[in-house]
Write a structure and sequence with these properties.
Tetracycline Repressor, domain 2; 0% strand; 214 residues; single chain; Arc Repressor Mutant, subunit A; mainly alpha; 2 domains
Length: 214
């Protein structure tokens, strides 16, 4: 029973579970598979995570946290960046989180499987994610448009920006059918992010000009 209390055991279990979920999907993995891959006993998995659904949720949460740490969406207050600089950083880092598989291939494969075959466990794990992303964007857009902008207008712009970003991940298979040469590299991800930022800023400036003239 030593594994049950070994401080390294939870991490080893999560590593094994992430690898298996990425390879087989949620439905294709049993707890006994994780036990075998992590080289622990069943009691250790039950002790640290309870059941498969909770283990899967913890794998997702760890992966999302790791991505956020590597490419944070929200600038530190002490950076004192302008709103357009914050939008640029948000779009750039979100595209890295969504498309850069170099540092998180397994997690990206899990996310791709979820886009095709979503599970209830995944939905609960990421329920707050779009809310936070939109909250950050709402603050940036409000500053760019001006405080008199309506909440409806701000939210629609935020959704438009977010929609451009996530489409490249969740519609990747469709995009590759229309453009077989499409591959996400560091260079192409940067170019896509720059396009979304420039396109979004042009739209926001145009709307602000119309609003100011009204």
């Amino acid at each position: 029973m030593r594994n049950r209390y070994n401080v390294a055991t939870p991490g080893r279990i999560l590593d094994a579970a992430e690898r298996l979920f990425a390879e087989r999907g949620y439905a294709g993995v049993a707890l006994k598979d994780v036990v075998r891959a992590a080289r622990v006993n069943g009691a250790a998995v039950n002790y640290h995570f309870g059941d498969k659904r909770n283990l899967y949720r913890k794998v997702i949460e760890r992966g999302l946290k790791s991505r956020e740490q590597a490419a944070p969406l929200e600038a530190a207050p002490e950076a004192k960046l302008s709103a357009d600089e914050r939008l640029h950083g948000f779009v750039r880092n979100l595209m890295v989180q969504l498309l850069d598989d170099s540092a998180a291939t397994r997690m990206s494969r899990v996310m791709l499987r979820e886009a095709i075959e979503p599970t209830a466990a995944f939905a609960r794990a990421v329920d707050e994610l779009p809310k936070r992303q939109l909250s950050i964007l709402d603050g940036i857009v409000t500053e760019l448009l001006g405080r008199k902008a309506s909440r409806t207008a701000v939210r629609r712009i935020s959704l438009s920006i977010l929609g451009q970003c996530v489409y490249y991940r969740y519609a990747a298979n469709i995009l590759r059918r229309t453009d077989p040469a499409l591959h996400y590299t560091r260079t192409s991800i940067h170019a896509i992010a720059e396009h979304i930022y420039a396109f979004s800023m042009a739209g926001i400036r145009g709307m602000k000009a119309n609003h100011d003239r009204a």
